[in-house]
Design the sequence.
């Protein structure tokens, strides 16, 4: 066997080993992609019902928030009415008291001058 034949044989064996290694790597890659595809299908099957439930929950939350908004609007209106009523009562009560105190002070001064 000559050196050229030996080199050719070594090259052929190296090519065969490389082809077997490449085939093995491709086989493992196909397995991994198959597992990944199965995983993604399972995730999709689980995710779609969850998204539907989430949408239903968000619809309920929005409905409740609208109710709370209505309640807060009503409470705000009641608060404004109570504030207005308090101001009216304050004016009604304060004005006569001030007048009575003014008359009382004037009468006190008149009485003290009359006594002298």
Sequence:
């Amino acid at each position: 066997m000559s050196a050229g034949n030996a080199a050719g044989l070594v090259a052929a064996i190296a090519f065969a080993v490389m082809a077997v290694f490449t085939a093995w790597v491709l086989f493992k890659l196909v397995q991994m992609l198959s597992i990944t595809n199965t995983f993604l299908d399972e995730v999709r099957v689980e995710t779609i019902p969850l998204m539907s439930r989430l949408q239903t929950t968000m619809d309920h939350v929005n409905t409740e928030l609208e109710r709370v908004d209505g309640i807060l609007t009503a409470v705000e209106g009641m608060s404004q009415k109570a504030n207005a009523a308090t101001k009216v009562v304050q004016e009604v009560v304060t004005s006569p008291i001030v007048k009575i105190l003014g008359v009382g002070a004037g009468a006190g001064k008149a009485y003290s001058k009359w006594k002298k």
About this structure: The mean pLDDT is 88. Residues 1-87 form one domain. DSSP finds one helix and no strands in the chain.
